[in-house]
Structure formats: C-alpha cells, structure tokens
Amino acid sequence: MTLEIRPVTADLWPLLETLFGPQGACYGCWCSYFRLEPRLRDALSRDEKKQLLEQATQEALPPGLIALDAGVPVGWVQVTPRAHVPRWNTVRTVSRPLDGDDPSDSGLWAISCFFIQSKRRGEGISRALLDAAVTHARHNGARIVEACPIEKAKHSRSVGLFVGSVSVFAQAGFEPVAERKPGRPLMRKVLA
Fold first, then answer.
1. Which one of 70, 87, 99, 160 has the fewest CB atoms closer than 10 angstroms to its CB?
2. pLDDT beyond 90 at 176
3. Range of the domain at 44
4. Higher pLDDT, 189 or 154
5. Does residue 158 carry a pLDDT above 50?
6. pLDDT digit string (tens) for 7-30?
7. Into how many domains does the chain fold?
8. Rounded to an integer, what distance in angstroms lies between the CA atom of residue 133 and that of residue 81?
C-alpha cells in the first residue's frame, strides 16, 4: 500500500465527503465533536455540521489530512492548533491543557480524531496519518503536539478508536503527561 497524504483544502473536499459518506462519519459528527460546544453541536443538523467542516477546508490552515490509496480516500486525521478544538480545552475534559499551558498558543497543537474507512481499519493507515500529522503540524509552527488516545477498545476495528490508540501514539514517540481518566492519557510530543 502506498498512501498519498494531503491537507484537506477546498479542492479535496469532495474526497473527504466521499470518505465520510452520507451519514458524515461517526454518526453524523462531521468532526464537530471537539470543534463545537455540546449545546451548539446538538442544535445543529447533520448538514449544518457538514457545512462547517467544508468551510474549514477553505481557511488558510486546513482542518486535517486525508489519506488516499491510488486516489481513493481511505482515512482522515484532524490536526489543528488547540485553539481550533475548543472542547478539547474545557476543564471537564480529559484532554484539557496542562497547568500553565495556554490553549490559544499557536504552537500548541492537537491531533483530536481519526476516521478510517471501515474495511481498511487495522492496516496501519492511522500510523501513516499520525506521522504525516506531526510533520504537517511542525511545518505550520507547532512546538508541541498532543493527543488523548484510548488504551483499549472493544476490538481493533472499533469506531471508538476515533481518538486514536495509545500504542500507535507511543510508537510515534508521544509520551503520557497526564491521565485524568483511566485508559485515556494526554500524550505529548515535543518537536525540535
């Protein structure tokens, strides 16, 4: 498998739309879970969430990366400055910043979710996306990249792995810096 991994800009929106399908990945989320506060997210329709993500692909800094296998979309990772995923930064979340960290700091980034085509899960696509996400963050000014993956899912192909797997992040050099809930460490990679 040879993957091409690219930032999702407006010209690639149709491929992300194809990957997510008519339901919008993860029960119509369209990767709004960390981007919007719960009340607002719940008030929006699936189509409105879709429109918000499409608008994000038109901004100077794309909301994430897409993996293509022979031109066919097979995976996605949301990688942004922490400020772009405000729900990640609230005091009641396991992903909240460490004491003293400012979530509006443009050098502090988050890898907040993955979506892998169901029939392609377990093939290492998330590993490739993670490596590309770290490179993308570094090229866009990140000094630190964080994630809040899950230790165990019911099975390796679970949609519950949308936050990523601890083992994949550990293999990529991320280290746990806090654990506010068992099995959900905040992991960090400091970029040189």
1. 99
2. yes
3. 3-190
4. 189
5. no
6. 999 999 999 999 998 888 777 788
7. 1
8. 12
Burial status of residue 175 (CB atoms within 10 A of its CB: 0-12, 13-18, 19 or more): exposed
Q: Per residue, what are the HEC states of the chain?
A: CCEEEEECCHHHHHHHHHHHCCCCCCCCCCCCCCCCCHHHHHHCCHHHHHHHHHHHCCCCCCCEEEEEECCEEEEEEEEEEHHHCHHHHCCCCCCCCCCCCCCCCCCEEEEEEEEECHHHCCCCHHHHHHHHHHHHHHHCCCCEEEECCECCCCCCCCHHHHHCEHHHHHHCCCEEEEECCCCCEEEEEECC
- Structure confidence by residue, pLDDT tens digits, 89-112: 988 899 999 999 999 999 999 999
CATH of the domain at 101: 3.40.630.30
| Residue 159 burial by Cβ neighbours in a 10 Å radius (0-12, 13-18, 19+) | middle
Residues in the chain: 192
pLDDT of 78 over the 90 cut: yes
